[in-house]
Fold this protein.
Amino acid sequence: MATYFYQATDTEGRIIEGDLDAPDYRVAVQKVRGLNYFPIKVTQEEPDNSFFKGLSLQDSLTSPFSKISAKELMSFTQQLATLTSSKLTLDKSLSITTRLTEKEKARETFQDIQKRVHGGSSFADALAAYPEVFSKMYVNIIRAGELGGVLDSVLMRLGDFLERVQDTKSKIVNAMIYPAILISFGGGAILFLMIFVVPKFSSIFEDKGNAIPFVTMILLNLSNFLVHNWWMIGAVSVFILIAFIVYAKSPIGKYYWDKLVLKLPIFGDLVRKIEMSRFSRTMATLLNSGVPVLQALNVVQSVINNRVIATAIAPLQEGLKSGQGISRSLQKADTFPPLAVHMIVVGEETGELEDMLIKVADTYDKEVDNAIRRALAMLGPFLLLSVGGTVIFIVFSIFLGMFSVTDLIM
């Protein structure tokens, strides 16, 4: 259950503001209407995570070069859905939504879209003018909604879809905050010890030769190398990082990297479940919006992040063209989880494919939550042991060397 803030007008035209609890955006809108209010804006209130709030990366749902963040896109879609479902014209709905937008860059984009629609352009074509903001999937769903005369319901589905994607992103990002902080502070502490603390003991161990324990000698040599060659280590690290990013962004590099990720213990299974949820929910949203199944598969292939899984969608298209259906083609592919394949087979055989795809997405959303908890339950102690073990090794090596020197003096 989440808390939603709403702005609405009553029967006399006065602006009413408030909040209410609802399981999702659609129910929240229905509750506002149940109060005999005309909803203008309904948005989910997010808990204040104080320090962690500033570290959130939820805006990564859209392109880093986009003028509009993922949260703004979700808010735009949900507000537009609320207004159009209240029988306002698209032009008027866009005008109101634009006025309610707070950030200037986003407002300028929406104003231009509203001008294009007012000038006679279709809504889908107006959105397509901003490919860095509105994805191929978004535009295709809107186009299908316009052609079918069900734009309001299509926008409502899109709003629900974006909200669920945003929730999944939030869970993953927030789950990674603790490990990231632990690695940063732990790594910083280890570097501080090696660069500033250990060298101070070097003079004590000078001219002691073979009397110094082997582990202490290793520690001193490693510390000496870090102190005198930090610039070279930094340069090589930056070069390796840049080379990896360039390679990972190339088509062949991304494919083999994604293939490696799927083979990783724990994380490979997590990625597979995330992509299965994305595949199912996107496919269900497209089909429910009236997008033809072949076109829907083409769009889904473009929104899947893992290239190995995206490549496995191509045979599904060929299977559909030959009359085999989605389920039979899925059964031939080894990429998709057996449970998901079985559920989709049942959905196609019973003629309820869209509903079953939504159930698959809901199932794997829960699986992702559980997988994240399991991964954190193992990753947290592993990182603590690694950082703590390294610090203990450093301290133990120094004290072992000190005891050896003391024995020689005595």
